Amino acid sequence: MSACVPTxxxxxxxxxxxxxxxxxxxxxxxxxxxxxxxxxxxxxxIAVFLIALPLSLGIALATGAPLQAGLVAxxxxxxxxxxxxxxxxxxxxPAAGLTVVTADLIHQYGWRTTCAITVLAGIAQLGLxxxxxxxxxxxxxxxxxxxxxxxxxVAIAVAQLHIVLGGTPxxxxxxxxxxxxxxxxxxxxxxxxxxxxxxxxxxxWPRIPGRxxxxxxxxxxxxxxxxxxxxxxxxxGLSVAKVDLPSWRSHALAGLPEGxxxxxxxxxxxxxxxxxxxxxLGAVAVDKLVSGRREPxxxxxxxxxxxxxxxxxxxxxxxxxxxxxxxxxVAVRSVANVRAGAVSRNSTMLHGVWVVVAALLMVPLxxxxxxxxxxALVMAVGIQMVSLNHIRTITRHREILVYATTTLGVVFLGxxxxxxxxxxxxxxxxLHRLARTRxxxxxxxxxxxxxxxxxxxxxxxxxxxxALHLVPQRAATIxxxxxxxxxxxxxxxxxxxxxxxxxxxxxxEVTGRAGTRIAEPASSSHSCCRPWTAWRNxxxxxxxxxxxxxxxxxxxxxxxxxxxxQRNTAPHVRGELARxxxxxxxxxxxxxxxxxxxxxxxxxxxxxxGDLFVVRNVGNLVPIPGAASGDDSVAAAIEYAVDVLKVxxxxxxxxxxxxxxxxxxxxxxxxxxxxLKRWLRHGTPSLERMAAHKEEGWARLAxxxxxxxVEQLCLTNVVQQLEHLRGHESVARxxxxxxxxLHGMYFHVGEAQxxxxxxxxxxxFDQVTPSPxxxxxxxxxxxxxxx
Length: 787
Hints:
Blueprint: H1 28-33, H2 39-63, H3 67-84, E1 92-93, H4 99-109, H5 111-130, H6 134-137, H7 142-164, H8 173-185, H9 189-204, H10 210-216, H11 221-236, H12 261-291, H13 305-321, E2 328-329, H14 331-339, H15 346-361, H16 363-366, H17 371-384, H18 388-396, H19 400-412, H20 415-435, E3 438-444, E4 447-453, H21 461-468, E5 476-482, H22 488-503, E6 507-511, H23 556-583, E7 589-594, H24 601-604, E8 612-617, H25 633-644, E9 649-655, H26 659-666, H27 675-680, H28 684-692, E10 700-701, H29 709-726, H30 729-736, E11 741-748, E12 753-757, E13 764-767
Parallel strand pairs: 4-5, 5-6, 7-8, 7-9, 9-11, 10-13
Antiparallel strand pairs: 1-2, 3-4, 11-12, 12-13
Helix pairs in contact: 2-3, 2-4, 2-11, 2-14, 2-15, 2-17, 3-13, 3-15, 4-5, 5-12, 5-13, 7-8, 7-17, 7-19, 7-20, 9-11, 9-17, 12-13, 12-14, 19-20, 21-22, 28-29
Protein name: SulP family inorganic anion transporter
Function: Catalyzes the reversible hydration of carbon dioxide to form bicarbonate.
Transmembrane segments: 38-62, 109-131, 143-167, 187-206, 218-241, 261-286, 348-365, 371-388, 400-431
């Protein structure tokens, strides 16, 4: 929270309240209040600055520009784009996605002309922002965008590999690949050792396990890796090339552009395209990150993309004029800004201020940094730009040809040429899918089947009409549409034929993929359990009366439900289940919960087949390892999930109104030892924990105390069972390796509300709030959950 800010108006975003009776009168106080900076913004700006400083120097090194150019771009991106841009929490600066473009421009036209091209690109962005065309940039296929970034990443990694090995990169990717064998034969041990140290710290620092890992990860990995490499180089006296920052008095500014007009226009268009697309997509990604946070943002809601384009244009114009690199929104810094808790654009602007201070006062310290460390840092960023998650997603959507074409085009031809080639392939693929429609007519057991494979557009209407006219009058007909689109012309042709065929005494059934009916009377099914029926207020276990003279067989409800599954649901999931049958189960989580019939794990976790390895028992209990219970089923499931399936997390989920917890509270000790009593003995430590923590503070829900003793025991039991889990040898081993996390969860059945155990010292369960941009069910629980 911001210090010394009046409680009735926290920031300028609430200026509309100033007309209320309790608002302060206009004047100096209101003006002064605008300059208040939240403490969260200050801390976030420092975190972003610590990441931006080494990356800016590394990107400048990779482009072949003066190293000060990276600092200029970082400062201008923070101050200008941060102040004017429409995405308050996006951090702009020299981006890795522009490295190849800028390096090529410097090689062709020289540094001063490259700065002029950056200025012209900024002016072009300002023009596009005034024309309000920002949203149209998002129409570019994601396969093209990710392919462009992957191609740039490959080019960066190959070029920086030469510096990592102690050599000098060439200007083109093919030249770098040809020179690689000679470079491997002429290694420089000092530079290579510094690079290996940098890469090792970049990889291992975020993976330090346990509480110590959570503490040290406050310091960003790029800063740690570069600082450690610098310290080793200085203390060991290694002879390696280091950062050389000439005097600011000799810093080169933009000059008049020199070169062929067509080439300069193409260069301006390339810089404009890459800067704009990367910044706009980054702004959308930042919105998704912010929407998942509980804390409100002081600057309002979603990003204004047209204003963001204006901010990026102004930043590029200023950066180029001052001799800086091109500026764009940077994903690494923006994510760090959001995760550090920034609430307004002040954090972005402050990070620019810190860069200016460092550039003026920290020159002697910066000149100790080995170039090999910066090259290793930038090479790691380039490798990360080739995202396996993006490749999997694109493959699933059958866009891999577009992605591969764009990537190879960028690597071997250039950014603008690669993007143009990718767009052309994307358009060709779309037209191919639109025009490729296969229509067949067959007769099976007296029923005529007309099958349409592909999109049904006006181009396919003549073939559709020919196939439909092969159906004789008064025939039973099934029209199967296996596509996701039907235009108006195709709809009219199909509907007119259907009406005429029915009037002539025939029947028509229109189905979708796998034979599921598109339109079907409700009375045609004997079961109320349909996938599209709201499950509330219908009870499959309610006994139905048999017709007079008939006897309803036992198990009718089970058979009816299974029949409904085979008819309605199985066709939809058969393909996915077939894949799982071939590949085997690979769940990411073990979900241990109660056997209560009201707890539907797939519903409350939005998961499907293959997502969760579920263990259910009475009371969601985890017997202490070695307990003489005579039942190793839970321990066996834990061992199998952790050691064989290699799950990454285990969640213990309790729930309200748990009958096992009620039995623990209300059943007196002694008496006959039934199987249920023997099992519930594993919950006795939870009773003891609740009694022992009465004075220190019980486990509780955020914002309120437990409703009664049963709910108190339900919450305490989750915490206690997590302690039991840590006692299992396989769990303890994987947690020590940093490969496994434990999570606690509580589900209130009556409120349909989930709570997660937080990282606070006290055992507090925090409410999970809905988000319109929720991640995939396979994602891990939020990082705020207690481990």
